[in-house]
Write a structure and sequence with these properties.
It contains eleven helices and ten strands. It is α+β, with helices and mostly antiparallel strands. The chain has three domains: 105 residues; 96 residues, Butyryl-CoA Dehydrogenase, subunit A, domain 2, CATH 2.40.110.10; 172 residues, Up-down Bundle (Butyryl-CoA Dehydrogenase, subunit A, domain 3). The strands form three sheets. Strands 1-6-7-10 form a four-stranded mixed β-sheet, with helices on one face. It has a four-stranded antiparallel β-sheet with strand order 4-5-9-8, with no helix packed on it. The longest helix is centred in the middle third of the chain and has 36 residues.
Length: 410
Amino acid sequence: MSPQKPDTTTIREQASAFASELAEYREEDLTPLWESLRASHVPFIPILFRDELDTAHALCNNVLRAIGKANVGAAYALENHLYVLGGIETYLSIHPNERVRARLDDILARRQYVANTHGYLHTDSAFTEGISAKPTGRGMEVNGIGHFVSFTKTAELLFLTLVDCPDPVALLFPLKGDQRITFGDDYYFPEVLRASDTRSMSCDGVVVSPEHIFDVARDHLLPGGAMSVVLLGWHLTLSSSAFLGGASYVIDQTLKFAKGFKTFDGRLLSRLDDIVAELGKIGIRYGAADALINDYTRSLVALSDARDRAEALRDGLLSAQIANCHATELTEEISRRCRRLLGTRIFGPRYATLGRVTTELLMGPLAPRNNGILEKDVGHGMLAKRSFDGIRWARSRTPGAGRAPEAGKT
């Protein structure tokens, strides 16, 4: 049974009110604001709209744009929570599990936040395993280090996928009150995205009981099956919206500067043809980013009715990867053009927030998946064909196939 759906306008208004509070908030600790948001519908959109996943995805993108415009780091923290709920609900739409669905209903009833991590570390070798788990008589014992855990102060639960074991599983277990779970004292991103509250996490013999464990179907080329695919699709698109929200703030400030700054001959920057054209290009590319994200939204509708589900999963993931690549490259470009236009004044006290946001936007192409990986996969797909016939070439090679899964990466 699906929860009663609230009006979408109400959700947008709640997100807008939270963004307004966030923009005026001057304390580093955002706990009071997160507690306020907890009482709203915003953090639970994927559960509330589980029978309309396209609406859920569109709403999540909408609210993350609004919040990202006020604070990119805060939007990224909330995105980590929302994409887990959205990914699980999408997985359940093709692999129903009443026990897991009841777990999500409990999250809604208790108004809980969910953090997540993946098991890979920053070392000299790609995909160095940091977190592992082994079965015990009491469930599973988790040990190791996760470098990226956002929402550490606020979240009550931790989501973790373990797909390199014989029977892949997902864990959704309590994060607080266990002395065997510890967090680093320092922010993983000390200079940017501080509001995401991202830190390292250590697990030393954490026992996860059976009620917090559920199986993951191995039904796709990625090791984590459909679970890894849909989690990554939600993560790629929602994180894009968090950065696009920050980019919209930068665009606003750039427009304000162009309308108020005069050149040596007394003309406003906004009257110069090259400035007008540059702004127009940004607007067009922003619209293209919207369209690409909406393409993934539509893919969620097609998934449940697809005759070839593996193909539908693959196509949906590709659309999410392309959307993320385009959107984050755009946000980086917006940052660069704004800095070029404003010059060194952007690092002065008057533009302190703008300077910080333009730096944060440089993070977009690096996470949750480095754009260079997709570019190489796409190149292989193009070279495998005798002639280029558009996006259909992608079916010759599943992006990321053969690599360790990205699900849970923050």
